[in-house]
Amino acid sequence: MGIEHITIRTINRYFGLPKSSSIKYVVRVKFLMRFKFALLFLLALFALQFAATINIDFYYGVGCTHCAATEKIFEKMGNDYQLNITRYEVNQDAVNRQRMFNEYEYFNVSISQGGVPTTVVQGKAFVVGELTEEQWKELFDAACNETTCPVGVITQKNFTLIQEKDSASAITWPVLIGAAIVDSINPCTIAIMVMLISTILYSKGRKEALIAGLMFSITIFIMYMLYGIGIMKAITTFEISQIFYTFVTVAALLLAIMEFYAYVNYKPGFFAVEMPVFLRPYAHDIIEKATTPWGIVMAAVFCSLFLLPCSSGPYLMVLGLIAKSATLQTLTYLVVYNLFFILPMVTIAFLVYFGKTTIENVGEMKEKYIRQIHLVSGVILLLLFFVMLNELLKIV
After folding, report:
1. How confident is the model over 4-14, as pLDDT tens digits?
2. Which residue in 183, 188, 344, 366 could disulfide with 275, CB within 3.0 to 4.6 Å?
3. What separation in angstroms does the CA of 35 have from each of 109, 182, 216, 290, 353?
């Protein structure tokens, strides 16, 4: 039996499909480089916007000199900070005035002790009256560039930045990398990569298989970065970080139990973090039709959606830990996480290219140790659950 037949047998065992015919792949390196850098550039722009924006609710009154002075400071500081200012005039607008009163009530401050200007930064820092430019700079730096965010009432005479512990501080590099490894060694992720490389390898050769594998991996990386940034943006926009955190904490325990069950009584696509069986033929068809560089990119985009049901668990756990903060540090966490997520894909592509292993060996190893993979995944998810539970209940 030839090597191609062995590989197809391994793929079919996972996808439950008949043997497919050879596929012709045309990979243009120039196209790959242009596409990669264009997407990375767009991702960087979007990520920087997400990480640096400071949201401000500014309550002012017509004719208020202190309000005008604060406006001038904001205008000047707009060159150094990305300020998203929503203005509410309260002297002539009863709706805006009531909104400001509600803010005073929320922060437990008597309206008799305040007035205009009143400024709310990131929904946490409640600034009564005027601040100096240096004080605004200190506040913006704390709200935008650190892992903690000032909370409470702030005035010019009583300028104290009380720091709130951010959920991102609960995550450590071992926790982050451990969750990423659980995600990366997911059986369905490996199976899809085996299928992609094998079909190209036997139709075009090692070089094209390597380029296609890297192209596929880079696209998966970009898509998962966008998913993570989008989810965090939604959490902060709708202010549901605590609800989301509680949900993923419970989900971490459930997923850990499911993984342990998979170790004891393994069934493909059920009671484990795997791609459901009914989705596998669709993933197979999409990859099989990827005959051009653009086709490979589109296949990776669609497969990233197929991978979400079977590999989103650990990712959501990490997002739950860092969701309360939108800083450059949390963006770094996402980058590192997703680099580890695509690491096995990149490694497989290079090992096959340099002849250190064969694609059928990778598939067979995945089948041989699939129960052990679920056991390790369950242990790490359980540890992650305890970390999240401790942060939720403040046990330690």
Report:
1. 444 445 545 55
2. 188
3. 53, 29, 12, 16, 22
pLDDT digits (tens, 9 = 90+) for 200-251: 777 778 888 888 889 999 999 999 999 988 888 888 777 787 788 888 889 8
| Cα R_g (the chain), whole angstroms | 26
Banded model confidence at residue 49, pLDDT cuts 50, 70, 90 = very low
Instruction: Check whether residue 153 and residue 21 sit in a common domain.
Output: no
Contact residues for 66 (Cβ-Cβ < 8 A; gap 6+): 116, 117, 129, 130
> What's the pTM?
0.61
Domain-embedded: residue 56:
no
Compute the distance between CA of residue 238 and CA of residue 261 in angstroms, rounded to an integer.
Answer: 35
270 three-state secondary structure:
strand
Reading the block at residue 162, the tokens are 């009380």
Q: What is the Cβ-side half-sphere exposure of residue 50, based on CA atoms within 13 angstroms?
A: 28
**pLDDT tens readout for residues 261-302:** 888 888 776 555 566 667 777 777 777 777 677 878 888 888
Instruction: Name 363's bridge partners.
Output: none
Burial of 58 (0-12, 13-18, 19+ CB in 10 A): buried
Task: Classify residue 55: in a domain, yes or no.
Answer: no
Look up residue 112 and give its amino acid. S
Reduced to 3 states, what is the DSSP secondary structure of residue 161?
coil
Q: State how far the Cα of 212 lies from the Cα of 319, in Å rounded to an integer.
A: 29
